[in-house]
């Protein structure tokens, strides 16, 4: 027979009808009650499934009752083994197993191995061994043993019993059976057979069966009886044709009655369900309306909570006063539901004078530009004096409103205001400002809005105090830093600018510094350094280093020598404090640059053609590690060249590596060739992402314009160390001064040349080099030789005619001096034009 499956998890009325029809056809071809029972049991075993189509019943059994006298010997023997009171009387009914599908548990006959079960019913043994079947037989009822033949049996009763609790299932049939097969429920159903006997079917199911589904098996029980009817004891060939017709009619009537009863039950159940669903639907609609209302309230509350949290976090972190007051005004206006709002606040100027500013929210600020600042009228006095909150459902009806000239109310063109709410912002007794909210409709502000605005005012007061304190401390630190840094002097032949930006966060002074030092010989010293750390200590160390650096520079020391001496100084005044520095000397007249680096980022040099390179060929250790040698680098600095010295705050920040920052700086320097002030501002904006930087930034930017070079502005001569060099040098100086139109200075310059060249010939006794240069406002003469002995002012005795030439130069020249170079020295003198 083709497999037909019925889903026990969704067993319905239609499933019941189909199942009954299939059951009635199942025993076709059977020849006895046993074979018919096996066909029915097999159908139920294979046909019942779960929601996934798997077999739902691991065990199915079918029982019938028989008189003790009619039992075969084997069944009697089985009954004796299960009966505690001995053999029952011949007329007693015994429940016997007719068919079984499944393998557990087995009631096997020890002699034959066949599965057998027989027990008298009703009896204590049956109630103990098969309690579910015993209860089912009791409910179906049995025919009395002395009932006369030919007397019609009582009306057929078909019953159903369900054990739907897994715990009871385990108690009835054992933990091992229930666990192994996953038994969730047990269903027993049965009824009378035509010969007065009873039949019973037990299904052990993996699917939990509800009581409603179990009731549908009452009709299934009728279909089982119909299937077994041809093979019961009263059926042909022993019964007459009339009796057979009568029995089949009775079976059909029973089936029809069961169907009608099931339909009525299902209809009643459906009516109950419809009523319950209708009530549930009404309740659901009501709940949905309530949920929507609560959801809207919760959304509004959540929006307020989120706004308060966001505003609190923002105000706590915001230190920019202008951004803070605007954010507070916008948030408070949203929270109160005002049509527009304003925040008036007091600010102290540099002279300590207080003045009133304001921001507008909800409308464009231009709507209020033509109105004067509010005065302490009777309406505004409460807020501006910090006396308390003023809330009015209609401010135009307030007795304090409209008494002040010149408007006696709102100025012409003012936005209409009926609902009015004003909250002072007070901190430690000081009135910092006030919130003002308006709406054109009356009665818009409630007590809740007042509480929210008051809370906003409290948060704003704390944030304002923090911002004002931060601004004061930051201004103080910046002012201190700027006073420690120099105003860059003007140096002939170059244009320069500098920048110092304290870190975007923090209020303490830093240790970055820049310096540009004009040297006596016309050169310029360029310095950028960084003392790590913040606070007064770092600033003090920076100031000492800067002062010492200027002193060493004025001694005419080379870049390497200056850094060596600074390293010893740092080791003495600030041991362990990391300090880096770049020191360079720039000779604009000769177009030469010499630099030494102490643990600092290398200077960036741009040539007139836009090529950029970093002077990183030799970088020494940071300052403060004792006397160490610092390598020097020399590079040409022709007209059009540019040089940038900087600290690490310019190129290094969170989210960007140092190499990336240096690469970006190289690109910017290569692209720029404009005005140096604009270049610096542009670089800062790009490299700090609009002013967001974590460290101090110091920059020194130098440019040698192409117009600084002048043809014929320098004359150079080289001489052997012989006395003939002196008169030739005098002649060259005289001719050159005449060419330059400076005859009035010719005598002074010839005396200086006479003395410097003569000293070189007399004392150095090495080849020498004389150079005469003209700058914008001075004439400079230099004599270079290979001797390291420097001329000095020495007092001579009256009878001693030596050492008087230097006194002569000191009297004539504006400045003079000596600087050491590799392989010798340079003696120079300068005269102002």
Automatic annotation (TrEMBL):
Residue ranges of coiled coil: 267-301
Superkingdom, taxonomy of origin: Bacteria
UniProt entry keywords in alphabetical sequence: Coiled coil, Hydrolase
The UniProt record lists the keyword Lyase: no
Keyword Coiled coil belongs to the record: yes
GAF domain boundaries: 320-474
SMART domains per the UniProt record, alphabetical: GAF, PP2C_SIG
Protein name: Magnesium or manganese-dependent protein phosphatase
Organism from which the protein derives: Streptomyces glaucosporus
């Amino acid at each position: 027979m083709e497999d037909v499956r019925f889903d026990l998890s969704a067993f319905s009325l239609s499933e019941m009808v189909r199942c009954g029809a299939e059951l009635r056809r199942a025993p076709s071809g059977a020849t006895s009650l046993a074979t018919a029972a096996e066909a029915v049991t097999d159908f139920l075993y294979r046909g019942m499934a779960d929601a996934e189509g798997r077999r739902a019943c691991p065990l199915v059994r079918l029982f019938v009752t028989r008189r003790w006298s009619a039992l075969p010997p084997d069944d009697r023997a089985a009954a004796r083994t299960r009966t505690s009171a001995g053999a029952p009387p011949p007329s007693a009914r015994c429940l016997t197993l007719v068919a079984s599908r499944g393998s557990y548990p087995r009631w096997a006959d020890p002699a034959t191995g066949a599965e057998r079960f027989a027990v008298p019913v009703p009896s204590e043994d049956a109630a103990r061994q098969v309690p579910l079947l015993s209860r089912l037989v009791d409910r179906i009822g049995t025919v009395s043993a002395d009932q006369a033949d030919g007397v019609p049996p009582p009306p057929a009763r078909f019953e159903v019993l369900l054990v739907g609790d897994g715990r009871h299932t385990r108690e009835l049939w054992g933990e091992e059976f229930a666990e192994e097969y996953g038994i969730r429920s047990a269903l027993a159903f049965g009824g009378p057979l035509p010969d007065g006997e009873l039949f019973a079917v037990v299904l052990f199911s993996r699917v939990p069966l509800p009581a409603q589904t179990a009731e549908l098996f009452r009709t299934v029980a009728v279909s089982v009886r119909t299937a077994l009817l041809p093979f019961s004891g009263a059926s042909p060939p022993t019964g007459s044709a009339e009796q057979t017709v009568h029995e089949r009619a009775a079976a059909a009537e029973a089936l029809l009655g069961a169907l009608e009863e099931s339909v009525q039950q299902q209809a009643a159940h459906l009516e109950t369900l419809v009523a319950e669903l209708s009530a549930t639907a009404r309740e659901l609609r009501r709940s949905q309306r309530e949920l929507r209302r609560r959801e809207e309230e919760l959304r509004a509350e959540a929006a307020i909570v989120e706004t308060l949290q966001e505003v609190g976090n923002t105000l706590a972190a915001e230190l920019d006063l202008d951004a803070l007051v605007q954010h507070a005004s916008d948030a408070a206006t949203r929270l109160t539901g005002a049509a527009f709002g304003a925040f008036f606040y007091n600010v102290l100027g540099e002279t300590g004078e207080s003045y009133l500013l304001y921001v507008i929210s909800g409308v464009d600020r231009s709507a209020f530009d033509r109105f004067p600042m509010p005065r302490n009228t009777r309406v505004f006095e409460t807020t501006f004096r910090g006396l308390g909150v003023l809330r009015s459902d209609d401010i135009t009806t307030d007795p304090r409103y409209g008494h002040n000239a010149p408007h006696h109310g709102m100025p012409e063109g003012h936005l209409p205001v009926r609902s009015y709410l004003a909250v002072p912002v007070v901190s430690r007794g000081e009135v910092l400002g006030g919130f003002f909210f308006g709406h054109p409709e009356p009665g818009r502000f409630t007590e809740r809005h007042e509480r929210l605005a008051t809370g906003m005012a409290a948060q704003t007061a704390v944030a304002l105090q923090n911002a004002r304190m931060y601004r004061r401390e930051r201004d103080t630190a910046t002012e201190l830093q700027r006073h420690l840094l120099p105003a860059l002097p003007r140096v002939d032949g170059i244009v320069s600018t500098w920048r110092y930006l304290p870190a975007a966060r923090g209020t303490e002074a830093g240790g970055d510094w820049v310096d540009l030092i004009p040297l006596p010989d016309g050169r310029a010293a360029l310095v950028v350094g960084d003392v790590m750390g913040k606070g007064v200590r770092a600033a003090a160390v920076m100031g000492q280093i800067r002062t010492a650096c200027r002193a060493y520079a004025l001694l005419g020391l080379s870049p390497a020598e200056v850094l060596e001496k600074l390293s010893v100084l740092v080791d003495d005044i600030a041991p362990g404090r990391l300090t880096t520095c770049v020191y360079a000397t720039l000779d604009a007249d000769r177009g030469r640059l010499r630099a030494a680096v102490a643990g600092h980022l290398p200077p960036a040099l741009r040539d007139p053609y836009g090529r950029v390179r970093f002077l990183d060929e030799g970088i020494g250790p940071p300052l403060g590690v004792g006397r160490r040698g610092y390598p020097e680098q020399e590079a040409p600095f022709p007209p059009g060249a540019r040089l940038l010295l900087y600290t690490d705050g310019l190129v290094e920040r969170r989210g960007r590596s140092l190499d990336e920052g240096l690469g970006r700086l190289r690109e910017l320097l290569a692209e720029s060739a404009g005005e140096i002030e604009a270049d610096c501002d542009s670089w800062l904006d790009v490299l700090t992402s609009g002013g967001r930087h974590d460290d101090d930034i110091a920059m020194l930017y130098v440019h040698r314009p192409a117009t600084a070079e002048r043809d014929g502005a320098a004359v150079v001569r080289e001489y052997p160390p012989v006395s003939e060099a002196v008169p030739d040098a005098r002649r060259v100086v005289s001719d050159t001064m005449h060419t330059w139109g400076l005859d009035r200075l010719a005598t002074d310059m010839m005396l200086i040349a006479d003395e410097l060249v003569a000293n070189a010939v007399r004392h150095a006794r090495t080849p020498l080099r004389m150079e005469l240069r003209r700058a914008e406002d001075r004439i400079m003469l230099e004599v270079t030789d290979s001797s390291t002995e420097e001329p000095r002012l020495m007092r001579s005795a009256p009878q001693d005619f030596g050492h008087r030439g230097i006194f002569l130069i000191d009297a004539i020249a504006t400045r003079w001096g000596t600087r050491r170079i590799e392989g010798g020295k340079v003696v120079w003198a300068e005269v102002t034009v």
